[in-house]
């Protein structure tokens, strides 16, 4: 990991947590949506995170040189091995497979012939916990970036003399 590797990893985590918070907000906004473009009630969504691949380190290249060719492991000049090694990215946003909740409301325009309406299976308490978790993770990664900035500033002060 290079000097700015921590910032890249934390930045990728902050971006992923921001998307997670947006999905939670969309879930809360659509908690009472009974009609969507695809038909039926809104379906709760989840964000799936995936760890970024590890960067190719000098030790890896050196270790592979004993068993294979070094040239195949080297990257072209000026390219980074991986922008956010150790970071995270969004693998996808998936829909919750839970069946919708049925509530008896015969006066609702989307009520079936039996008088029941299909509502999304969204628990506001669960959504708030997810939102708080995303907010805290975002803040922690912001603190990590601030700590890295302090370390870089201290290193520059030492280099000045």
From TrEMBL:
TM regions (residue ranges): none
Span of domain Flagellar basal-body/hook protein C-terminal: 115-157
Domain Flagellar basal body rod protein N-terminal, residue spans: 7-34
Superkingdom as given in the UniProt entry: Bacteria
InterPro entries: Flag_bb_rod_N (IPR001444), Flagellar_basal_body_rod_CS (IPR019776), Flg_bb/hook_C_dom (IPR010930), FlgC (IPR006299)
Principal subcellular localization: other
CC per GO annotation: bacterial-type flagellum basal body, rod
Keywords associated with the record: Bacterial flagellum, Cell projection, Cilium, Flagellum
Single Gene Ontology BP annotation: bacterial-type flagellum-dependent swarming motility
PROSITE patterns attached to this UniProt entry: FLAGELLA_BB_ROD
Keyword Metal-binding: no
Location of the protein in the cell: Bacterial flagellum basal body
Subunit structure: The basal body constitutes a major portion of the flagellar organelle and consists of four rings (L,P,S, and M) mounted on a central rod. The rod consists of about 26 subunits of FlgG in the distal portion, and FlgB, FlgC and FlgF are thought to build up the proximal portion of the rod with about 6 subunits each.
Entries under PANTHER family matching the protein: FLAGELLAR BASAL-BODY ROD PROTEIN FLGC (PTHR30435:SF2), FLAGELLAR PROTEIN (PTHR30435)
Recorded family membership: Belongs to the flagella basal body rod proteins family.
NCBIfam families recorded: FlgC (TIGR01395)
Record-given protein name: Flagellar basal-body rod protein FlgC
Originating species: Occallatibacter riparius
Gene, per the UniProt record: flgC
